[in-house]
Amino acid sequence: MKLSGNTVLITGGATGIGYALAESFLENRNTVIICGRREEKLLAAQQKHPEIKYKVCDVADEKQRETLFSWVKSNFSDLNILVNNAGIQRDIDLTKGLEDFQKDGDEIKINFEAPVYLSALFTPFLAGKKNAAIITVSSGLAFMPMTRVPIYCATKAAVHSFCASQRKQLSRLGIKVFELIPPMILDTELNLEGREKRDMGNLEIKTPSSADFAAAAMKGLENDQSEIGYGMTEDLKKASLEELERRAY
Fold this sequence. Notes:
43% helix, globular
């Protein structure tokens, strides 16, 4: 994949991995558009990088997804790369029935439905364009579930499976499909409440930064690596089912 001269849309691009990817694409001389639910975060990203374009959009909302697509079509006809990055993670106690499910956002809509539907909206628009690609961020937890975040793990496993099918089908249209598989990264806003409960910030473990992962992702994209992991997730995507079951926690 050619890393320069593209027009790239990144969902959830104002913070964490999405923002690190935005910076990486900017460094490689691309036009970068980011979207997210919170305009103050989008503005903060644009203040750091005035060349960034942005659109407020909650990708879990069908109408907002359609509005985003129409806006991109009208204003960035040369867009050739979609990055499905937006996601949330929540601690959910399945023994409580619906109680935890009804708090603070729907992981299924944001983590799985959004990339599926956005990909469907953009596929005809991307078809036939030079260097066209859809890049979706999953997680090492797609392979090795963590019981505290069961819905997150399930949605990321679904994303992994979806990317595999999508890759085969969209190759007929000249659209490359990449899956980014990050390990635990602490300098993001992902599940801050749950991490505070578990005191994750004080763990004496070495985790990559969002920038570290983005740099590795860019190398993988340049080398047309369809599934791009980092550190332990490179091992997880090659592990046997028996080994993954032993490592689940």
